[in-house]
Design brief:
- By secondary structure, the protein is of the alpha+beta class.
- The chain has 2 domains: 63 residues, FAD/NAD(P)-binding domain (3-Layer(bba) Sandwich), CATH 3.50.50; 64 residues, no CATH class.
- Strands 1, 2, 3 and 4 form a 4-stranded antiparallel sheet that branches.
- The radius of gyration is 22 Å and the shape is elongated.
- It starts with a helix and ends with a helix.
- The chain binds flavin-adenine dinucleotide.
- Flavin-adenine dinucleotide (FAD) binds next to helix 3 and helix 4.
- The site of flavin-adenine dinucleotide has 9 residues, from helix 3 and helix 4.
């Protein structure tokens, strides 16, 4: 579980129930567009793979329905692929993050500046704040140069 020990402890204190070795299979609805639950399946640890890590495998027939009214999908962080398909002229790298100049935070698209996780990938607040400050200066320089 990629979280700090105290984060796990605090989550449990706040009433979060961890469903370990459980995988969601599908969302269930009432047929009118409202969520009613998630069908899940129990997993068990199989044989170790080449890296030595035991991979979870499904326990056949262990499906069960978890009643829900809200689901928040939080399975890792990555760039939204919509960025590439909706914004022509904005260069992204092979992971889908926006390419920006390290000093001015300028992107390949005129008048567009970027910084933070969408440029570096998942990082830290302090790095995002630094990029914000550089971008502010970059935008100021761009506007005062009048080349827009
Ligand atoms: C679980 C977790 C724990 C973390 N813990 C730490 C920590 O302890 N310390 C630390 O330094 N960093 C931590 N981080 C990392 C930190 O949160 C990020 O590096 C930082 O928030 C990046 O800032 P950002 O401004 O680039 O992006 P974000 O904070 O992600 O801000 C992007 C904003 O853009 C909005 N947005 C997205 N799409 C659109 C759109 N189309 N139109 C308008 N708005 C849009 C989003 O809603 C969001 O508000 C953690 C991250 C996670 C996920």
């Amino acid at each position: 579980m990629p979280a700090r020990l105290e984060e796990v402890k605090h989550a449990k204190q706040e009433g979060i129930e961890f469903q370990v070795l459980t995988a969601p299979v599908e969302f269930l609805s009432d047929g009118k567009g409202w969520l009613t639950g998630a069908r899940c399946i129990k997993m068990e640890l199989g044989e170790p793979d080449a890296s030595g890590r035991r991979r979870p495998v499904e326990i056949k027939g262990s499906e069960f329905d978890l009643p829900l009214s809200v689901a928040v999908i939080a399975i890792g962080t990555s760039a939204n692929p919509i960025v590439q398909s909706t914004t022509p002229g904005l260069n992204t790298n092979k992971k889908g993050y926006i390419e920006a100049d390290a000093t001015s935070q300028r992107t390949s698209r005129k008048g567009v500046f970027a910084g933070g996780d969408i440029v570096t990938g998942s990082a830290t607040v302090i790095l995002a704040m630094g990029a914000g400050r550089r971008a502010a200066k970059g935008i100021h320089d761009y506007l005062t140069a009048g080349d827009w």
